[in-house]
Task: inverse folding
């Protein structure tokens, strides 16, 4: 099955190719369908060698132009987390931690980097989304929802697996678009079924929160909503 970003959808439709959609493609189709919130696992971001390869996920510019709520467990730690946070800021994408000040690292609840803002409830997310619309902002709201601490990869195990994967990547001389699949496979090999269990926990946790946010968005506007200009 192919991996389909937003740019791939027209040709996939013409040729009948089946595929799994990236965050960029999902956000585009969801917005076109009038869906205001969706949940995913991890967001694409800036790759570790982006300074030389310019390798950055199309998820980021897509969210800069699509007014939608995205629930994500941050980005996978094999990516360049601080550079991704910088790009989110530059692109004007609002980021809020869900009941946390830490930006999640997908496999772990805390990537070691902070989120700029925090929300405490689905209702607050709904008010923030309505406020963004009232202010005329056309970008997404990224809700960074960490995997529960009890279900994360043990941080020490995660850090050891990531360090070994990065060393193997350097030894193999792999760069560009092949780097991330290589790193992810190395982490999976080092952690076995535990990384798969974390994946399941991430999706389950994000889907539950996404559903609660959708319910809040379907309810009456809160008192902090901003009225759009006429």
Result:
């Amino acid at each position: 099955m192919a991996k389909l970003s937003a740019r791939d959808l027209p040709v996939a439709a013409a040729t009948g190719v089946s595929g799994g959609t990236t965050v960029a493609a999902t956000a585009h189709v969801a917005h076109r369908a009038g869906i205001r919130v969706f949940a995913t696992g991890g967001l694409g971001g800036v790759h570790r060698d982006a300074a030389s390869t310019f390798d950055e996920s199309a998820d980021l510019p897509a969210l800069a132009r699509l007014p939608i709520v995205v629930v994500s467990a941050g980005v996978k730690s094999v990516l360049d987390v601080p550079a991704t946070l910088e790009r989110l800021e530059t692109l004007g994408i609002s980021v809020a931690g869900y009941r946390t000040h830490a930006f999640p690292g997908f496999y772990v609840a805390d990537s070691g980097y902070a989120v700029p803002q925090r929300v405490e409830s689905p209702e607050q997310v709904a008010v923030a989304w309505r406020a963004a619309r009232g202010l005329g902002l056309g970008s997404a709201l990224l809700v960074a929802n960490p995997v529960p601490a009890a279900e994360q990869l043990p941080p020490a195990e995660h850090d050891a697996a990531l360090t070994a994967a990065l060393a193997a990547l350097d030894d193999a001389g792999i760069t560009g678009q092949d780097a991330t699949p290589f790193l992810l496979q190395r982490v999976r090999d080092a952690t076995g079924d535990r990384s798969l269990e974390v994946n399941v926990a991430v999706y389950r946790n994000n889907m539950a929160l996404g559903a609660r946010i959708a319910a809040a968005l379907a309810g009456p506007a809160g008192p902090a909503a901003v009225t759009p200009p006429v």
Observations:
- The chain has one domain: 22-218.
- The longest strand covers residues 94-98.
